Amino acid sequence: MTKPNGKIKFAVAGCGYIGKKHAALIQDHPECDLVALMDVKPKDSLGIEAFSLPFFDDLPSMLAQMPEIDVLCICTPNACHAQQAMVALDYKKHVVIEKPMGLSKAECEQVLHKALNQSRQVFCVMQNRYSPPAAWLKKMVEEKRLGQIRLVQLNCFWNRDDRYYFKDGQRHEWHGRKALDGGTLYTQFAHFIDIMYWVFGDIKKIKARFDNFEHQHSTDFEDTGLVMFDFVNGGKGCLQFSTAVWDKNFESTITILGSKGSIKLGGQYMNRLEYCHIDNYEAPVLEESLPANQYAGYQGSAANHHYVFDNVVEVLKERTQPTTNALEGMKVVDIIERIYRAGQ
Which segments of the chain does DSSP mark as H helices, in order? Predict the structure, then answer.
């Protein structure tokens, strides 16, 4: 892998809210240059007037005409992620992929295989790992402060109503459409499944039930689910999730019961330490995450994307290792895919 000289040159595919966020963070980073944008929509409909850059409506054309690009950020609909990553890797570009890495383990494996063959990095955006409470929880589990893990309960209760799934009186072009969106766990709650996997490892013996209470007219899939499983490393877990909460987000919390103590991270995106009672341990005062990302009036996950770009720079300058690599991104997709399969 060739280490980029000077500033690392980025392009962004997808100029919606999150794509514009990537673009702004790249421009603000002292070791990055934003050199091009791409979207299939007309440029004057995207609200990107602040970015005076070459604009393309086709990904291969951008990559062919802008050989100086080092890294492509993929901020397009979920179903495009793996396919566009393959295109970028064909052009020997590093890739930053917004979650999910893909909509199936099989297509993620293809990306991983091509990245290895091309000696290029694939970074998966799982920015909740940078939240101080999440990093602290992982350290507590690695140090076995809680003893044997008995039970992990993950609750993700958000609101996604017609404000999210409709635009100008019409159904959104990809939100809620199974072929492009994938489902609630891919679009809304992949970050929290990633935290669970990052801290506690893989799961097995999955049982799941789903329902669609409020979104029959706006989505092709469930808005609520109950999932039970065992952890490969020991202990049991359960996931309860819903986007049918009235009016606004309620919470995303994780509760852990161990043989030597109990912990709960709470708030709307696991951003607060709400309970800590552990044998021979005094609970710390932890910094909360930054305020949540805002998506057209909705709150999403923690706004830690700047840490993602710091990590990309540090890795490509050969100063550190990826925080979330392609293998881990694939594993989160694999877990979601198996949960959905268990509920069929």
Answer: 17-28, 59-65, 81-90, 105-118, 132-142, 162-165, 178-181, 184-187, 190-200, 305-316, 326-342
Residue 255 Cα distances to 149, 155, 267, 289, angstroms: 11, 9, 12, 18
Burial class (CB in 10 A: 0-12, 13-18, 19+), 119: exposed
Tens-place pLDDT, residues 259-315: 999 999 999 889 999 999 999 999 999 987 655 555 555 555 556 899 999 999 999
The pLDDT value recorded for residue 297 is 55
Residue 230, SS3?
A: strand
333's tokens = 């997709």
- d(C-alpha 197, C-alpha 280), whole Å: 27
Cα gap 228→296, rounded to integer Å: 33
What SS3 class is residue 290? Answer: coil
Task: Return the structure tokens found at 287.
Answer: 């910094």
- Verdict on whether the full-model pTM lies above 0.85: yes
77-128 pLDDT, tens digit each: 999 999 999 999 999 999 999 999 999 999 999 999 999 999 999 999 999 9
End-to-end Cα distance, the chain? 43
Which residues contact residue 160 at a Cβ distance below 8 angstroms, ignoring those fewer than 6 apart? 188, 215, 223, 243, 298
| 329 closest CA partner among 104, 177, 14 | 104
- The Cα 99–Cα 191 span in angstroms is 8
Alpha carbon distance 6, 180 (integer Å): 37
Angle at 154 between CA 141 and CA 245, to 5 degrees: 155
CA dist 36 and 44 (Å) reads 15
201: left (phi over 0), alpha (psi -120 to 50) or beta: left
Using CA atoms, how far apart are residues 165 and 177, in angstroms rounded to an integer? 9
Contacts of 248 (CB under 8 A, 6+ apart): 159, 299
